[in-house]
Amino acid sequence: MKTYTATRRIFILQLLAAVSVFFSLFKGSTSFTLHQLIYDDYGQFNTIFLKLRLPRTITAFTSGGLLALSGSLMQLLLQNPLADPYVLGISSGAAFFTLLLMLAGASGSMLLAGAWAGSMLTAGMIVLLGGMHRWQMHALLLCGIAIAGGFGAGISLILLLSPDASLHSMLFWLTGDLNDAGWSPAGIIILIAGTGICWLLAPGCDILGRGDQEARALGLPVKPYRIILFSLSSLFAAAAVVQAGCIGFAGLIVPHFARRISGYNHRLMLPAAVLLGGSLVVLADTLARTLFAPQQIPVGIVMAVIGIPIFIFLMRP
Amino acid sequence: MIHSLDINNLSIHRGNKIVISNLSMTINPGDCWAVLGPNGSGKTTLLQTLAGHIAPAAGEIKLNDTPLAGLSERRIAQQIGVLFQHSRYPFPQTVYEYCHAAHYPHQPLFAPRNDTHSTTTEHALDVMQLTSFADKNIQHLSGGEQRRAAIAALLIQSPRFFLLDEPSNHLDIPHQIHTLNLLLQLAENEGRAVMMALHDINLAQRYCNKILMIMSDGTVRHGMADEMLTAENLTQLYQHPIDAIRYGEQTYWMYESGRK
């Protein structure tokens, strides 16, 4: 009976995802209707739709889904419901390495590989520091903030050394930006394959959150499990950063609400987080495009405005 | 198949301290062991070593004639279940979800849990009188209720060997009696073996047929309960005056209270 209501709630999430995608596709500095798109004599709406809106909406959705998955896994790995790639500085690590590679003239899969290396490195540092501080919640978050600060300084240095021409777009990208989103299959492939792998690993996730000892006593091979989830979580964060910059708070707040909606069974919870995270970033991006149209603001700023009060609310004991 | 947990010349060190040296014994089906010892004597360390979580400094533990060190976590969890002294619940989840996840070592790795499994879960919740808590968030339960949920999860895991670290912790007296009776029945009627660290000598006296004492100098004594539980042994074990009183057929243990 429990599963039945959870399945129904997931269906509602699917509806939410469909509605948010619909809004995103037809609203913007130029809004149009489905009718206009179908009977489009001059092809102008078709161009907007296919060249701008559709890739941008898909990128927004995959970024949100990736961040939500990454956050869900990171919270399990640290046994801490306030962990998230952005708060822990993992996004900053990925962004720092991406910028370095951009300066060196790299592109495409090289950027993704560099971002992954950066996010793995940062996550590794946090795990090391967390172990030193006996996994105290405040110590973990403070370590994350310190690491994020360090990478922030590094990012500032790169920006100062960059030519003026690229500065504006770099800044936009850093705050979380979908303006230049084009057709990039990497994010879609990683999200779909990643969700599948997470679905397979989900029963182990149900017990990993109890801590290593108890998970092991229930027969979970904790070490290989941790390494796999750790690499996946870093990869998801890196893929999101490469295509959309540093969008904060999605990875933090989405898992929390996903658990409320679907329950703690990760077979349902992780897909729910993907749907919810995708919808949230798509809606935030629609707001970012329309609030001050034709002026666009970075989606990361909209997410911060939504996310900060919720984060403070979740911080309470 | 005859199940047994064989311990040969086992030595356990913790840092520089020798917790246990040269222990040899066998835990057989039907046994209900109490592990007694003062604080910090190594009761928890012994239980965790027997569960394969801590590597021994020397000696060998064999689960059904196979060395424990060579078995996967999953194989061990199918046979040995552990109740930890403390549990953490960092994430909100219902009591049902918490307990249901204990099917993990028995279910195929990637398959979903089916209906037979949910019957087992419901039965275990019923046995631990948690049915009305099934949909409650485990984080909001009292210490005793969380303890009962952890025991229900252990019943669902259904191991041949139950290793319990202070199972009576946080439980009120009726639930202590209920839980220990349940464990004793598992040993006597279903051929499971139980080993539990206890602080209450009277519970050990009532429910256990075998006793293992970890003295503060690291030596271990073990044997049948009626031979081991003597005023002399217990006084020496805890370095505190302890005496027996008889009430009807029963023996009770009295502790010198230090007050007149």
Textual characterization of the structure:
The complex is a heterodimer of chains A (317) and B (260). Chain A has 317 residues and is mainly alpha-helical. Chain A has one domain (2-6, 59-314): ABC transporter involved in vitamin B12 uptake, BtuC (Orthogonal Bundle), CATH 1.10.3470. Helices cover 78% and strands 0% of the residues of chain A. Chain A contains 13 helices and no strands. Chain A has helices spanning 2-26, 34-38, 44-78, 90-103, 109-132, 137-161, 164-174, 185-208, 212-217, 222-244, 250-262, 266-290, 299-315. By secondary structure, chain B is of the alpha/beta class. Helix content of chain B is 33%, strand content 27%. Chain B contains nine helices and twelve strands. Chain B has helices at 43-50, 73-79, 95-100, 115-127, 143-157, 173-190, 201-207, 225-228, 231-238, and strands at 5-14, 17-27, 32-36, 58-63, 66-67, 80-83, 161-165, 193-197, 210-214, 220-224, 242-247, 250-255. Chain B has a six-stranded mixed sheet with strand order 6-7-8-3-9-10, sandwiched between helices. In chain B, strand 7, helix 6 and strand 8 form a beta-alpha-beta unit. In chain B, helix 4 crosses helix 5 (143-157). The longest helix of chain B has 18 residues, at 173-190. The A-B interface holds A 2, 75-76, 79-81, 200, 203-204, 206-207, 209-211, 213-214, 216-222, 259-260, 263-265, 267 and B 48, 51, 53, 72-78, 81-82, 84, 87-94, 96-98, 101-102, 104-105, 107, 109-110, 112-113, 135, 157.
Topology of this protein?
The complex is a heterodimer of chains A (about 325) and B (about 260).
Chain A: H1 2-26, H2 34-38, H3 44-78, H4 90-103, H5 109-132, H6 137-161, H7 164-174, H8 185-208, H9 212-217, H10 222-244, H11 250-262, H12 266-290, H13 299-315
Chain B: E1 5-14, E2 17-27, E3 32-36, H1 43-50, E4 58-63, E5 66-67, H2 73-79, E6 80-83, H3 95-100, H4 115-127, H5 143-157, E7 161-165, H6 173-190, E8 193-197, H7 201-207, E9 210-214, E10 220-224, H8 225-228, H9 231-238, E11 242-247, E12 250-255
Parallel strand pairs in B: 3-8, 3-9, 6-7, 7-8
Antiparallel strand pairs in B: 1-2, 1-4, 4-5, 9-10, 11-12
